[in-house]
Amino acid sequence: MDAWLKTHAVFVTAVCGALYCAGGDNYQLARSTETLALFADGVREGLLLLRTLALPPAPLNLRAIFMWMPRAITIAYWRRLFGAVRGQYYFAEHVRVAWAEMKMLSDEVRAVLSVSAANEPAFDRLCRAIDSYAATQMAHMPKETLR
User: Fold this and answer.
1) Which distant-in-sequence residues (6+ apart) come within 8 Å of 88 by Cβ?
2) Global pTM value
3) Distance between CA atoms of 4 and 63, rounded to whole angstroms?
4) If we measure between CA atoms, which residue out of 85, 61, 87 comes closest to residue 74?
5) Residue 59: which residues within 8 A CB-CB, separation 6 or more?
6) Looking at residue 118, what is its pLDDT?
7) Do 88 and 19 touch, CB atoms closer than 8 A?
8) 54 CB burial (10 A radius; 0-12, 13-18, 19+)
9) pLDDT at residue 120 above 90?
């Protein structure tokens, strides 16, 4: 269970970071090959980091799409999913409103994995996108809400 939760946290953090890079818009994400490549690289880096913790391997479907398939196929797969209404329902609607939760998750994942920009540049960029999105959302909150 611990391995599954950590794997899920890495994946969710990468999805959120990619969506936040696209302003929370799954359709915009689907149109950005650069951001989809960042997402694919970030998940791969995160899964490799999990292996260094001596956890059981990630589920077969995640290993196949992020570790074994050519990057172009991974990008094409996620472009199709993020470019469909499913991408909105599965991911975008949740991450747009759960930015505080995503920020906490990202911080916890970074702490567990000891993420550094030098070793995991894509995953680090996705986490920084979460930081930036959360800071923007926080700045727009009414001051009385922050108490």
Assistant:
1) 26, 27
2) 0.91
3) 13
4) 61
5) 4, 7
6) 61
7) no
8) exposed
9) no
